[in-house]
Amino acid sequence: MTCPALLSWNEIHARLPHIFPEGSDNREHSIWEIAAKTIFVMLYAGAVEGSDHWIRPDQVTRMTDEQARQTDDAARQAWAAASIKPSKADVPGRWYAVNTRESIRDDTIRYALIQNSAVIERPGLATTSPAGRYALQADFAGLLEPDLEEATFHARVTAWQEKHLTAGALARLAIVRAGAASGGDYELVTFPNGETRRMTPGASTDISKAVIEVFAPKFLQKPGVISLSESGNKVVARDDDLAKAIKLKIPADKSLPDIVLVDLGPSHPLLIFVEVVHTDGPVNQARKTSLLEIAEGAGFPPQHVAFVTAFLDRGGSQFRKTANSLAWGSYAWFASEPDNLIVFSDKPLPIEGS
């Protein structure tokens, strides 16, 4: 057999963030070093769709820098044949410890590369079989040809994404890309009543805009915006007339969240405090307590107050960094998945089928 052309694992690593940009499913495990080395081993062993060659996760652990430098077909074929055989022999300089093969299989291959259509699984193979099981999807392997010009590479990536990523993933990519591409002197935000406000462009503004234009009409019966702030606590809009109409009194010296919404649909208006997270500042337990004090002092009991932390994307680092601090009794919402809410319930809820 003629082995496929081979990039170094470092070069593969450099291409992965372009193939799996912000918004991709399980992006972290699709672009990290382990993913690059796993893909390298598949290419090294000729495990590409249509070749009938497959690898096992433990072969990734058994690769070494010295072996990776031996790139002629004979050396690659000999290593593939030898490394597929179960062995307890020590491998000096191996890339990973023996006990990491399950993590490579689950975190990187199954839940990232297969989920993102970069890797395929051998059909009909028994779970307990020691045979090779995984190979690169053929079109994905085409993105890793060594001599691709930059324009050709990006054109192929776009075509591959449109063909192989899920509709949900493509929708998230479109939203994240739209935010990354925003520019100019200001970004225009349209309120539920049709009024508009200008905000300084940036990631936080992209999320705020989505909260007001998408979240509010989707999850509230009759939404209104009481206040909107941006970085540096600059107040973009404050509707004192609306606040007065619902008998809401907010002291000027109190630190409000990024957005204060109200739902005028229920018989008793519902107050919604929204924190927009791009770098920090979620609704954690301490923040929830302080906001409840503001709400109760303004005449809103807890049962008529809700708390939302808004993020750009569920796969982004901002959510991963703050998820364990989000307050019970609050919600998390993602601009890239606007139809869904994560509920951090502080009381038992019945489990429902999907």
TrEMBL record:
Tagged with keyword Manganese: no
Cite the BsuBI/PstI restriction endonuclease domain residue spans from the record: 188-346
* Keyword set, alphabetical order: Endonuclease, Hydrolase, Nuclease, Plasmid
InterPro entries attached here? BsuBI/PstI_C_sf, BsuBI/PstI_N, BsuBI/PstI_N_sf, Restrct_endonuc_II_BsuBI_C
Can you give the residue ranges of the BsuBI/PstI restriction endonuclease HTH domain? 9-175
Tell me which domain of life the UniProt entry assigns to the organism this sequence originates from: Bacteria
Its GO biological process annotations read: DNA restriction-modification system
Is Hydrolase given among the entry's keywords? Answer: yes
Q: Name one GO molecular function term.
A: type II site-specific deoxyribonuclease activity
Q: How is this protein named in the record?
A: BsuBIPstI restriction endonuclease domain protein
The organism is Sphingobium chlorophenolicum L-1
